[in-house]
Inverse folding.
């Protein structure tokens, strides 16, 4: 049985080059038509069920990592990446091999030898979930904070820096985003948005209000014991509900 | 005397005792015991002053006992006012008055001492039998209590308002200082990050990988890509060392960068860089625009299967120059984590030009993103 492999890379020159070298190093190998993005690659794997797949990590459509999650157990995966320092540290060569671009001849030969050994021994492709989970944790994007919000003012859509926000106000399924420059709407309920905000920088003060802690200028308590926060813009004063008033006890 | 909050933000954080007008008394940390002692000292001072005024009027020295009574009465008044302000803070009247505008504030800060004076006199009369019960009917008593209370409340209110203004000026100064420091620090940090992030490793290694693959298969293309890459490297190395660059040089750098990517991405990338001749000499800080283009590639075109177009265009708007980077890529999601490049740019712009520069990110009507950077002249 002829072993078959798929190469997926959005940069055609790299994919072709890898194909030429693979064919030289492993003459029996049949290389399927090149896949230029994650979606094409997924389709090819579904239809052709290759024995091995060389997946670029950064690809449009589906990334190499997302793709690996979907095809797990069906094919031996080799990740190809130019520079993913964090991801590389999380790879475990036993589960999935990885190649760093530009790929050296020695490293490619090593990878081919390993694949051939596995295919000849009819080993099942190893489970990847553990490796993938480790990579997901290692990638900095996972832990990054929310920085931008796409919001509407009439017909105009604008990208607003989260740091510029004075406060968020719930309005049914929408959330009103208030900055010094004006008010915008975002199509997301406050509860959902609040979950994505940095809890150290944004404080819920009311069921319907989340304020930017850096913008809180002062608080006051009125005759009835209700608490209000005053913001640094000098105009805004927002009520604090009893459930959240404890935050301001020390102020 | 009455401890009061001089910072509207912290109802209990920054109490002020009038005795702290004298620098010597500022050295002791604030506490209830200290304030009680201070009120005693302050009241004795007041009592002595009133006593001296009495001497001036009558030309007679009072007996030691009479002087003692003077001090006792003024202490009663002092503690009554002290207690009045405590209660006022405690029930929230002070906070309400301070938040409700000028008139309630004046009423509060004169009302409490007025009331305190009357209560203090009354309490003293219970101990010393001063005939206080007849104060409303005896014109002598009434005049003397009324004068005293008006004088005391006038003095206290003046001190408090003066102190409040001082504290506000101090807070404003402090705020400005912190802001200036923050901007300075952010500018330094952002500059550092800009320099570090200049040649993104992913870009570097992918380009080199393309070069090695093209050397065999398509030598002229490899040559073109390497030449563009060298132009880009040379320009960005020059940019790291210079404090300023011109819009023309920055446009060259961006064109070289996009040309490298064009070889790599093939039909998935089309680009135009349009900077009019008269704008090419405009000076700006280096490496402000390249991250915007990098962002458009990374988050706009790279994730999009069919790729798209990037157009970089500069125009003059009054005195300012606006550079616009328009892509037809994937566009922003409703909420975005990351986008560090643009966040850094924002910090750097505000560090360099403050409010005069602006970064606006909007949606390209045909899909994708438009980033407009406004530079002051």
């Amino acid at each position: 049985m002829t072993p078959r492999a798929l190469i997926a890379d959005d940069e055609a020159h790299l994919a072709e080059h890898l194909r030429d070298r693979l064919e030289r190093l492993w003459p029996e190998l049949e290389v399927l038509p090149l896949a230029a993005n994650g979606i094409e690659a997924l389709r090819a794997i579904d239809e052709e069920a290759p024995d091995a797949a060389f997946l670029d990590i950064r690809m449009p459509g589906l990334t190499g990592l997302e793709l690996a999650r979907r095809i797990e157990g069906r094919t031996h995966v080799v990740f190809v990446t130019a520079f993913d320092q964090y991801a590389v540290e999380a790879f475990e060569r036993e589960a999935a091999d990885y190649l760093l671009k530009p790929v050296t001849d020695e490293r490619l030969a090593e990878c081919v030898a390993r694949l051939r050994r596995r295919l000849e021994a009819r080993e099942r492709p190893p489970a990847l979930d553990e490796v993938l989970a480790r990579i997901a944790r290692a990638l900095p994007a996972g832990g990054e904070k929310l920085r931008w919000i796409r919001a509407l003012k009439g017909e105009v859509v604008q990208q607003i820096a989260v740091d510029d926000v004075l406060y968020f106000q719930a309005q049914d399924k929408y959330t009103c985003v208030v900055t010094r420059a004006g008010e915008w709407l975002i199509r997301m309920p406050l509860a959902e948005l609040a979950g994505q905000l940095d809890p150290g920088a944004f404080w819920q003060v009311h069921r319907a209000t989340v304020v930017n802690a850096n913008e809180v200028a002062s608080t006051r308590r009125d005759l009835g014991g209700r608490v209000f926060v005053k913001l640094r813009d000098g105009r805004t004063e927002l009520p604090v509900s009893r459930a959240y008033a404890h935050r301001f006890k020390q102020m | 005397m009455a401890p009061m909050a001089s910072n509207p933000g912290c109802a209990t954080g920054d109490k002020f005792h009038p005795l702290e007008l004298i620098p010597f008394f500022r050295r002791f940390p604030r506490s209830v015991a200290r304030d009680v002692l201070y009120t005693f000292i302050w009241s004795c001072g007041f009592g002595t002053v009133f006593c001296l005024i009495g001497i001036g009027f009558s030309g007679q020295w009072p007996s030691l006992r009479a002087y003692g009574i003077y001090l006792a009465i003024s202490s009663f008044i002092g503690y009554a006012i002290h207690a009045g302000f405590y209660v006022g803070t405690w029930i929230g009247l002070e906070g309400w008055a301070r938040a409700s505008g000028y008139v309630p504030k004046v009423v509060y800060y004169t009302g409490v001492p007025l009331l305190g004076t009357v209560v203090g006199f009354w309490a003293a009369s219970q101990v010393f039998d001063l005939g206080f019960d007849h104060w409303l009917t005896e014109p002598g008593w009434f005049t003397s209590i009324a004068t005293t209370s008006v004088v005391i409340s006038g003095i206290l209110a003046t001190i408090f308002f003066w102190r409040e203004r001082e504290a506000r000026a101090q807070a404003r100064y402090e705020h400005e200082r912190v802001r200036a420091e923050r901007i300075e620090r952010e500018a330094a940090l952002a500059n550092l990050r800009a320099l570090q992030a200049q040649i993104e490793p992913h870009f570097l290694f992918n380009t080199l990988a393309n070069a090695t693959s093209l050397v065999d298969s398509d030598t002229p293309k490899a040559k073109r890509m390497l030449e563009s890459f060298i132009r880009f490297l040379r320009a960005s190395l020059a940019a790291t060392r210079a404090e300023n660059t011109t819009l023309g040089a920055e446009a060259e750098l961006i064109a070289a960068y996009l040309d490298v990517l064009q070889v790599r991405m093939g039909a998935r990338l089309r680009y135009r860089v349009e900077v009019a001749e008269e704008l090419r000499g405009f000076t700006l800080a280096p490496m402000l625009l390249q991250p915007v283009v990098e962002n458009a590639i990374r988050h706009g075109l790279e994730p999009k299967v069919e790729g798209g177009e990037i157009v970089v265009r500069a125009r003059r708007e009054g005195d300012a120059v606006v550079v616009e980077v328009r892509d037809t890529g994937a566009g922003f999601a409703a909420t975005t984590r990351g986008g560090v490049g643009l966040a850094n740019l924002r910090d750097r712009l505000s560090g360099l030009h403050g409010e005069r520069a602006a970064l606006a990110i909007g949606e390209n009507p045909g899909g994708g993103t438009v980033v407009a950077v406004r530079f002051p002249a």
In short: The longest strand of chain A covers residues 146-153. Chain A touches chain B through 53 residues (CB under 8 Å). The CA atoms of residues 21 and 49 of chain A lie 22 Å apart. Chain A has a mean pLDDT of 88.
